[in-house]
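(Structure overview)
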Amino acid sequence: MNYKENLSFSYIARFSDNIIRPFEEIEKEAILKTIEYCDGNVCKAASFLKISHGTLYNKLKRWKNEHK
């Protein structure tokens, strides 16, 4: 099965500029944008993302420690 044939052209167009990025980078961007959308409310962001707030807090803590 050729997955590229099944993707819509609009989907490909949106991501064509960034071609391929590591999943972790995409995940982090999605999480941070969701938290911003939720005015900093991490529990609400976790709900939008369908993950537990504990998981989200752990990811934020890990990212903070990576930048030390």
Notes: The mean pLDDT is 81. The CA atoms of residues 23 and 29 lie 10 Å apart. The chain has five helices and no strands. The helical segments are 3-6, 9-15, 23-37, 42-49, 53-66.
